[in-house]
Amino acid sequence: MGWSLKPGDVVVRRDLHGQYGGRQYGGIGPSRTTPNVLLFTNPEKGHRHGYYDGWGDDGCFHYCGEGQVGDQRMVQGNLAILNHRVNGRALRLFRAVPGNRVQYVGEFELDETQQYYLTDAPETGNGPVRSVIMFRLRPRGEVRHEGAHIPKTPGAEPSITAIEPEEQRTERTLVDPAREPYEAERRESFLLRTYIDYIVSLGHKVTRHQISPAGEAKPLYTDLYDQTTDELIEAKGTVTREGVRMAIGQILDYSRYLKPKRVAVLLPIEPRRDLVALCQTLAIDIIWPDQEVWVRLSEREADDPKKGQQPWAGPLSFQ
User: Fold this and answer.
1) Distance CA 38, CA 274 (A)
2) b/e map of 220-230 (b: 16 or more CB within 10 Å)?
3) Quick one: average pLDDT of 72-83?
4) For 247-259, what is each residue's pLDDT tens digit?
5) 223/226 Cα distance (integer angstroms)
6) Whole-structure pTM over 0.90, yes or no?
7) For residue 153, is it within any domain?
8) 45 lies in some domain
9) H/E stretch holding 18
10) Nearest residue to 97 (alpha-carbon basis) of 16, 204, 188
């Protein structure tokens, strides 16, 4: 049976499957009766299940693979998309329209330069963040260039952009925009703002960076970069082991691109000694407020924390 639909045609999904096969539910429907893989996108509903489809600046439609829980794997429907050429199947994309109907967008094929990439998204129902597969679908012939656009198209080369410290963009909000910030995040924001005010009052110039790794859909955001001292600083609103280890991981990640002379983690109180030793092993300074001074602990001040004290005006309160 040949393909008779044209881009823009609207059909009832049940009738579509009756004619061309494929599963009547879900986003990916490999057909056993016709040489097609039917793909369905519904951005409004899909966002609730961790699916973020849309057009990219590269002219491709970026389509999220199937799997609502846990890291997505290259199996079942995802594998059908990956192997569509080998199996002689066309990729047919549809978008949801009112009335339980779908509109035919057009025929696609996997981009030969980069067939897919991995990114992060929350599980269905705003569950934990997991890894998802994003297929790059390149149009074949006429298609309807309508619908959602992805926020950022992955680039072939990494890029670094300086942004204002006041901008509230973070990696957490990009992955899950609907999530309310945790109390530790609010503490982190206040701590960071207070420290920025302090070093700016000393005449330091500060900024932060948006880092876009090659092939990544979501950029990275540093907390603070002290241009005057060439120092990268990552803040955390808690001194738990998990918080400190996360800060260390972020510092190591960002440093690959920025290559600062000095790095530090900014914390609300002094961490326990084992975490201090961990930071010292990696030559990461620790900064925290103590009454009316900022204390900086590094390998140079490890034996005498008072050497790292910096005068600071005003009490710091998280109440």
Assistant:
1) 55
2) bbbbbbbeeee
3) 96
4) 999 999 999 999 9
5) 10
6) no
7) no
8) yes
9) helix 13-20
10) 16
